[in-house]
Amino acid sequence: MKITDVRTRVFEWKGRTVPPEPHFCTNPMDMLELPADSMSSFRFHSWLIVEVFTDAGHVGLGNAALSPRLTKQVIDQYLKPILIGQDPFDTEFLWQYMYRQTMAFGRKGVGMVAISAVDLALWDILGKAAGQPIFRLLGGRTKSKIPVYASRLYDPNLKNLAAEASRYKEAGYRAMKMRFGWGPTHGAAGMQRNIELVRCIREVIGNEIDLMAEVYMGWNLDYARRMLPLLEPFNLRWLEEPVIPDDIQGLAALRAAGRIPIASGEHEFTIYGFRDLLEAKAIDYIQFDTNRVGGITQARKIAALAEAHSVPVIPHAGQMHNYHIVMASLNSPMAEYFPVVDVEVGNELFWYIFDGEPVAENGYINLRDDVPGLGLQLKESGLSDFNITE
Ligand code: MG
Asked: Separation of 131 CA from ligand 1 center, angstroms?
């Protein structure tokens, strides 16, 4: 089988969006004296779709959501010329070829996101050619269905927050994740606002549902150190990205404090990045996203490395490319899940682009045994909500 063409398109949402409230979610821009809507620069309202065509008629579908326009340029200019004429089954060779070809400017960030999107498309072709879902190429089922955690709870209004947490509890989720709204520039008073958010949710859901909390790189080591003892009574399952991803020593210091498990990795890349995190004993949970970290070709290697360190992998963002990894790994006890809502931060766009994403029932999703590849198709209807750039 040979690759005959590679097509990239950027889907930009033109529908209604919900503007974020102040203190909607901490983020790394909070440290700067910017207008209050700094979260708006972290909203993602477009998606990259890559299709890899073959002479056997199989079309692989890959996707990426970080800087789609730049990712498209990397694929079009650097990766497509490598791929044409190659055998899509040579995933390891092609990954190395793409990695080494873009190494001078790639390695981490947008270069690796581009490689990830292509790699997903190649694995989709493998699955379609074999007539098997990807998880069955990775080792098959390790669980009859995948527990998922509801990931939202952005609302700084306590009444709304309590109602939302209550809805997830009623829907049968056994874990959920909230966002903090205040960081170092808001001082000790902001710390109390953060605690109020956690307390509000804990009171609603009780102690028999896991609660995780997201900082999204919005704190620093000093602030996080001060927050840990305040948060400890609420028995958080993990504290997510409390400092920027380059502060590996900061993550390690927080983990060494032993008060709350530390999770990170959605902004880390390749087996080398995770080797460094594991060697530094910086994290209790690995959260790579397969469509950033280097595709399935890298994700499976990192999953193996994580297993040897007894560090669970609970990928960022759910979605099919991550669900296949979770299904095939005993070291991945659950997956993230973004409930279907109005388009808000952009995490939700995939619901509007793809058919085939499993919908949670009673806190679980499942993958079908009879749908080959990733199990996704572009939606036939509804794409008129997007401006599409070829
Ligand atoms: Mg996160």
From this structure: 33
**240 CA distance to ligand 1 centroid (A)?**
6
pTM: 0.96
Domain 136-379 CATH class label: alpha beta
Task: Decide: helix, strand or coil at residue 22.
Answer: coil
Return the axis-axis angle of helices 295-308 and 270-279, rounded to nearest 10°.
Answer: 20
Catalytic residues: 316
pLDDT tens for each residue of 37-61: 555 656 678 999 999 999 999 999 9
In the DSSP assignment, the letter for residue 77 is I
Report the distance separating Cα 286 and Cα 251, nearest Å. 12
Placement of tokens 């594991």 in the chain? 278
Compute, in angstroms, the gap from residue 263 CA to the centroid of ligand 1. Answer: 9
The span from the CA of 20 to the CA of 69, in Å, is 23
Q: What is the CATH number of domain 3-131?
A: 3.30.390.10
Q: Over 90: is that where the pLDDT of 3 sits?
A: yes
Pairing mode of beta strands 377-378, 354-355: antiparallel
